Amino acid sequence: MSVTISFNNVIKKYNDKPVISGLSLDIKKGEFFTLLGPSGCGKTTLLRMVAGFNSIEGGEITFDDKVMNRITPQHRNIGMVFQNYAIFPNLSVKNNVAFGLKNRKIPKDEIERRVDHILDVVQISQFKNSMPENLSGGQQQRIALARAIVMEPNVLLMDEPLSNLDAKLRVDMREAIKLIQHEVGITTVYVTHDQEEAMAVSDRIAVMNSGVIQQVGTPREIYQRPANIFVSNFIGRTNIVERSLKKVDNRQVLIMDENYQIDLDDITQYAEEIIKVSIRPEEFTISDTSEGMAGVIQHNVFLGINVHYTVQLSNGENVEVTEESTLGEPLEPGTEVKLLVNKEKINLFHYESEKNILEGDSYAK
Ligand SMILES: Nc1ncnc2c1ncn2[C@@H]1O[C@H](COP(=O)(O)OP(=O)(O)OP(=O)(O)O)[C@@H](O)[C@H]1O
Q1: How many Å apart are CA 285 and CA 98, to the nearest integer?
Q2: pLDDT tens digits for 207-254?
Q3: DSSP alpha helix (H) spans, 38-162
Q4: Which fold has domain 5-232?
Q5: How far does residue 227's CA lie from ligand 1's centre (Å)?
Q6: What's the CATH code, domain 241-350?
Q7: DSSP-H helix ranges across 185-321
Q8: Which residues form the pocket of ligand 1, taking CB atoms under 6 Å from any ligand atom?
Q9: Complex ipTM value
Q10: Where do the domains of the chain lie?
Q11: Structure pTM?
Q12: Are both 5-232 and 241-350 of the same fold?
């Protein structure tokens, strides 16, 4: 039985020093939910609180409506998968997965049925009788996943489960983990510092920094409408530039340079001030007309599907621009270009608070 998980104003201290000071968060039943943030931001601390390994100094954690603060880890019915998957090397794949069920004194034929089913779900049935040492890292991680899921936990916790795998396998395994999670439907809390991995697997993501949740949303929401500059920088790549919002002829415009203004009248009526603007590299177009922000190509990097350019603007700033590769040669350093900005996809932030001016409107598509 999958559960909802709620943090209500939770406080965590280590040696009297608060690392989480009043955090609230709701994770839905059956959801694949990821805690994402830089090292030391408190992801593992939250995960360990769900598992019951960490004491809580204030507030409540609930599963459905039941307060869990004082419930021991053994009584929470939680499955866990970590980067060191701690498989028993002396047991076959089948016996690794059956281990927990045998401890629960479940009848033999039921164990067999459940193990067979789960091995099927994680697609390692053909290795049922193999010893783990003869399996690849990805296959071993599937054993660890099977071993957790077979117990039919209320909650599945995964802490950087893919970080020991090589780059290509990580990509394959994250697809697999997402599919398996959707198939079994267990509420899952996943910890990673890898934003691309978080985007690939999650239904929703909480972006954290210094023990504080910065934003909760679907991968698309946090990419397209980051709540603040931190999220904007942490998710994907972006250029942050400071520019003036002005009223010109009674229309709201953003002054990109002396010859290029973006009309934002249909997007914001936000007075006049200096703001921070986030423009993702793929939201620039190198113009073949005379319109656009003036710049000079500094260098190009050919990456197959895309070419990355560093472009120096007339005020000396460098911006990163991505264009799809075409059959032609990339533009050479020294080439003068004009950059157009896709105004539908830019984000505007208040200068001081660094909060998104547009957050909460219906403009994110
Ligand atoms: N047992 C502990 N005793 C004291 N301080 C701790 C302890 N565990 C974690 N911390 C501190 O709490 C903060 C959050 O740590 P946590 O391990 O939750 O971060 P994280 O986001 O999981 O980081 P990482 O990605 O590096 O694992 C850090 O400042 C860390 O130094």
Answers
A1: 56
A2: 999 999 999 999 999 999 999 999 999 999 999 999 999 988 888 899
A3: 43-51, 93-103, 108-121, 137-149
A4: Rossmann fold (3.40.50)
A5: 24
A6: 2.40.50.140
A7: 195-201, 219-224, 229-234
A8: 14-15, 19, 37, 39-45, 193
A9: 0.95
A10: 5-232, 241-350
A11: 0.90
A12: no
